[in-house]
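User: quick one, sequence for these tokens?
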């Protein structure tokens, strides 16, 4: 799965879950500064992504932007597919 495909899925899921326009979400979108999410909102997004991609996301990693999260998923999805 390419980074672009992962981003498209992340963007769609975030848009649906957070009731945010998909056009407002880019790789540079910051969770707190651009989307005004609190820690619970971020946790819910991460939880949904973990279920969708069947991976575990370490929340102590510095995941401040959508791009950070997409890259994390891409890296760990590749790792889990290799197993």
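Assistant:
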């Amino acid at each position: 799965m390419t980074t672009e495909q992962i981003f498209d899925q992340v963007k769609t899921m975030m848009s649906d879950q957070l009731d945010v326009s998909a056009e407002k979400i880019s790789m540079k979108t910051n969770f707190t500064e651009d989307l005004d999410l609190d820690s619970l909102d971020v946790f819910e997004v991460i939880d949904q992504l973990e279920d969708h991609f069947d991976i575990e996301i370490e929340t102590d990693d510095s995941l401040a932007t959508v791009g950070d999260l997409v890259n994390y998923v891409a890296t760990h999805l590749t790792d889990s597919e290799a197993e």
